[in-house]
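Would you mind giving me a polypeptide sequence along with per-residue structure tokens?
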Amino acid sequence: MPSRFSAWPSILYAIVMGLGIAACLAAMVLHLLPRPWQVSLDDWDAFRLGVSRVMLVVGAAAGLAGCLRYPGYVIASVRKFFTTPGSPFDLAVLRIVVVALLLHRIKSMDVISFTRLPASMIHPPPWLGWVYDAGLLDSHVAIDVKWGFRVAALFSLCGCYTRISTAITALTALYLFALPHFDGKVDHQEHVLIWFIGLLAVSRCGDALSVDAWRSGQPRPADSILYALPLRFCWLLLGLVYFFPGFWKFWNCGLDWAFSSHLQLTLYRNWAIKPTFTPLRVDRYPWLLMIGGLGTLVFELGFVGCLFSARARSGLIALGQLFHLGVRLVLGIPFAMLQCSYVCLVPWSRLLNIAPGTREITPSRSSLLATVSLGTVLVLGNLTAGILHEKEGYPLSCFPTFDGREHRSQITRLEMIHVGANGESRPVHLRAFVKVGAVGASRIHQRILKERDPVRQRQQLQDLKQILRLSSADRIELYEVKTNTDPDAPREIARRRLY
């Protein structure tokens, strides 16, 4: 009886792979063919999106069939991924880089100023409303925590009392970097650093390149799973950063994201809201735009799978840096912290030819349990945020997806005008917010403009007058402006006063 059904995984794998290849070819052809004249644009778009979704589902089924076809290989790969010993040197390098980046970010951001925002401008991220209700959004508390963070981070950077100093660094950083998100605009620059410092806090990251290791006088520890597991979870979290933006692009736009005018219009929209940015004009080369769009989908969706191969990981480092360089040149969006987080993928000990230590470390049950527990919580939490398309969460969140469908080279934006007592009017520029003392002043500006409740928006504008120290005779007017986004023919289409 077992022999009768022993071939079914191979048969299933062959069928699904055949369907997958057919779906890919059909989707590619459909997206390159012109629209039939008797079919409306909306119906044609919906049909092509349906084909792309079928392609995605069949692709997932092909992956599952492959796992059933080669279960031994899959199990061996996963076991090798989690149980291969790692070097304490690699983990120590990650500790130093992450703590240094956190110190740099806290220096460049005036997080304290966000505790002084008026109540009308407070919009806590999901699940963090209790912080405001408990009175923790207080400048005196923030100042004390900031000093504690700096001291603990310096100790952790040097590897002095590493376990306790890294734990304090993680807890204080979690609080401090939450403050800028209470204005309703979540910035994803620090999310990865918060995940990484949390995993470092429950690991033995001070066994190399530290004062603690020097003071112990013991031989260097040998490679161990204790040093590998935190890095493995860092890799998985980095993969989730890319996977869900790629998934939602494909699910909501299909191959149209790369093979239609959608990507070009997305670029135009982003350029229109950044008038001072000079982009790399890839829109003038449609073939290059298609290759870039398709490459983005493949890179984001395939990142997680490539983590299980050492050779593929080496390629990911170079591809990831080139990807973010392209995003910065074309869209003007820097992901500096995310780029720096690639340090966790580099095998520093092997690259620098550092011989393994001789002192054997016996993995304790408590150490492994702490790392696995926190790593699992972070992975499952980010999986949940990604599935729910939750882009405004902290510290768990889905990174920006850019999955909205664009059909017209036109945007509707809001504009604030300051009218003085003498009747002179001028736009409220971001530089006016330096009086608030926040480097992220544009977030306050965007929050007011995007507020949907007109009553709350009026109150925010009144509070803004106090922040900008305007006299009672001055007023702020709010306009809705429709603008053409074509960079070769920018123009204002319509203007309507709202307040």
